Amino acid sequence: MLLDDTIAAISTAVGEGAIAVLRVSGPGAINVVSRVFRGSAVPERMQHRQSHFGEIYDVTGVIDQVLLTIFRGPHSYTGEDLVEISCHGGILVTRKILSLLLDAGARSAEPGEFTQRAFLNGKMDLTQAEAVMDLIRAQTELALRAANEQLAGYLGHELAQIQDRLLTTLAHIEAYIDFPDEAISPDTGTMLSNRLEEITGSLTKLVATAGQGRILRHGLRTVIYGEPNVGKSSLLNLLLGYDRAIVSETPGTTRDTIEETINVRGIPVRLIDTAGKRSSEDAIEREGIRRTELQLGQADLVLQVVDASAPRGNERERARSSDSSDEAAGVLNDRAKSENERQRSVRSDNEREHLMASAGREDRILVLNKVDLGLHSDWATSPGVRFSCRTREGQEALNQAIWDFVMASGLSGENFRIAISARHQACLQKAISDLEAAKAGLAKNELPELISIELRGALDAIGDVVGRHDTEDLLGRIFSEFCIGK
After folding, report:
1. What fold does the segment set 7-123 form as a domain?
2. Which of 331, 438, 450, 478 could form a disulfide with 326 if both were Cys (CB 3.0 to 4.6 A apart)?
3. What is the pLDDT of residues 411-452, one digit of tens each?
4. Residues 146, 148, 152, CA angle at the centre, nearest 5°?
5. Which CATH superfamily, name and number, covers 219-408?
6. What is the mean pLDDT of residues 75-89?
7. Where in the chain is the domain with CATH 3.40.50.300?
8. For residues 250 and 323, is the Cβ–Cβ distance under 8 A?
9. For residue 36, which of 81, 97, 86 has the smallest C-alpha distance?
10. Is the pLDDT of residue 332 over 60?
């Protein structure tokens, strides 16, 4: 389907650059450009995919020297006539050219409208359209590879095969319902159930890639957690390669969460530095600690940082001693309360690990920091990464531990052809639910009409992923396979 208006937009990023590209698409694209371009050839006579040098002009004179390229529909990105204008990359000149194109009859394109037209005109399915944005936003090589695989249509092809098998099953049932006089024998319940079981298994495999897709698109949400002054912010700065967080010996320096993304062997890792967990009378610090607890609940992975040069449970003691000036100023509560708090805070590392596990935080890496000061005997047998923010010891070991965690969680380092998104996951889970209902109906010998409704629901849910429903395909399959009305 072709839309009846013509759109224009600046396709390159905002800002100064060597060149910029403007696009015009629609049935009037070539005519619009002809009104503002002059060169050795007029746009109407230019060959498909050939670039021509010329000028963009208005009543005041030449605006810029440009290269003009014509892509004639349907052999273009959008499936329509499309023109690309390559000009100098100044902000003013690109805006001026866009203004001329709009005055010449185009309208300003909506966000994503060029790709939307490509989808509507059958140049790509919906999964490929979504992959365009994944390609643009990719931050690592693995994310880029996954986006390219989806853009190539591997997910759409896999779903098309599943749709084909489901269509065959549904067509058989509906032919039996609608054409009883044609002597079409229905499949047995066992055969139908086996077919549905196979289709459900294929969909389940696709749904299992949702975690892989989320990590590649949005990054592994990794919270840096620990007591005050154990080196959390120093670890963030080291992994980033620059000073992002303020590092100080004063406990409570980090009041809010700080988030940045790094690349660990192709995996985007979203590092979140958090406030040190301790008791505090400061309202702002307490809010920071509350946000720390919130981040822990949302984390994929926790880097639990400890000071391995000190005894277990000693972090809070050192944090408390640094507040001695406040205590001298009269801020300290009564001694009995302080002693009770001290006893509550001095927990063994094993107890803290138990608390982490009970909160769903088994997915963590223990970072034994400050080993350059010597590893305390309390930590000698702890299964953590020996690390030093000062000497960079253990950085590669930490990267390996993160990689091992991701691989153990189901991400494949070899095959990124299929990594579904959250939207795909919701649609496919709906399809699986409908298929399960259909199988349950078969087991109860429900009417074929009811089974058909469930299968149509599954087919529609799969169609939502690629942006296509198959009512016409279903009718075509019925008539072609069963020779109705011969």
Report:
1. Gyrase A; domain 2 (3.30.1360)
2. 331
3. 655 556 677 888 899 999 999 999 999 988 888 877 778 888
4. 120
5. P-loop containing nucleotide triphosphate hydrolases (3.40.50.300)
6. 95
7. 219-408
8. no
9. 97
10. no
Contact 194, 169 (CB under 8 A): no
CA dist 344 and 45 (Å) reads: 83
Instruction: Over range 328-341, report the average pLDDT.
Output: 40
Picking from 373, 398, 396, 403, the residue whose alpha carbon sits closest to that of residue 384 is 398
Mean per-residue pLDDT, 387-392: 91
Q: 137-209+420-482: which CATH topology?
A: Four Helix Bundle (Hemerythrin (Met), subunit A) (1.20.120)
Q: Give yes or no for a cis peptide into 74 (omega within 30° of 0).
A: yes
**H helical segments located in 252-373:** 283-298, 315-321, 324-328, 335-345, 349-358
Q: What is the reported pTM?
A: 0.69
Number of neighbours of residue 359 by Cβ within 10 angstroms: 12
Strands 37-39 and 82-89: unpaired
pLDDT digits (tens, 9 = 90+) for 158-199: 999 999 999 888 887 877 666 555 554 555 667 888 889 999
Please, where in the chain does CATH 1.20.120.430 lie? 137-209+420-482
| DSSP secondary structure, 178-229, as one string | H-GGGTPPPPPHHHHHHHHHHHHHHHHHHHTTHHHHHHHHH-EEEEEEESTT
Residue limits of CATH 3.30.1360.120 in the chain:
7-123
Contact 246, 196 (CB under 8 A): no
